[in-house]
User: Fold this.
Amino acid sequence: LRMEKEIEKYPSPITIMGVVPSTIVRILCVWKHYNEFGNVFGFKPRFDIMDGKLITIRNIIDSEDKFYQYQRYLDKIKEHDYFYKTKFRKEMIKFPYFLSILKQPSRNIPIIASLLSNNREYSMAKIMEINKRLRCDLFKNKYALELFCGIADEYIRLSAKYNTKPVFLLMPQKDDIALARGGRHYYREAISRLRRKLLTIDMTDYLAGADNLDQLYSDDSLYGGHFSRDGNKFVAQTVYAALKEAKLL
Assistant:
């Protein structure tokens, strides 16, 4: 959507769509709160896919007035957000609270116990582990995978329309690299499908072979969500080499 909005103002012979594996989660929501509990400002558009065709669901809360009256739009928000039924409703703790907690004891009891003991580090690690399992599962989900690849197809179509060479760049988090080093490259099928359509640069193998992995991420944690200055330089050099090899530069 951003490319379609800005490509005429900023034409380029090459465009790069850079995403993280968690993108497969983000493309399924219109209100991030239903997956990232507490992210109440996160209203956004999304795509749906029906019979192989991409459908745009515009941002339901697209003005300040609507935000302050968001309850009026909840039915539509729930209808279009994948996580309302699959995650939010299932993990909601409500009366009777004891029974609600016991619906998912392996998740709820450790998190509540750690918060009561003021051990926020443990509860955050538990939530990050749950989030990692979610994105792993979604890459096995036929609907989510079709949507992920369908958005890439639309990117390819737009690139042809505006005469720019499309490049797909996947930038894994540090915990994704840990999985890959253990033999669980869980988004490999998606990458293989995309490579048949356009130049696709998967940073996984490059990062998995790096001796200074901690230095390449800014977060001092196992999660490692963002690249450091060194990490950004490493990615840029890798992308540049790949574009040279593909004779795009």
About this structure: The first strand starts at residue 14 and ends at 19. The beta strands are 14-19, 46-50, 53-57, 165-170, 199-202. DSSP finds 14 helices and five strands in the chain. The mean pLDDT is 94.
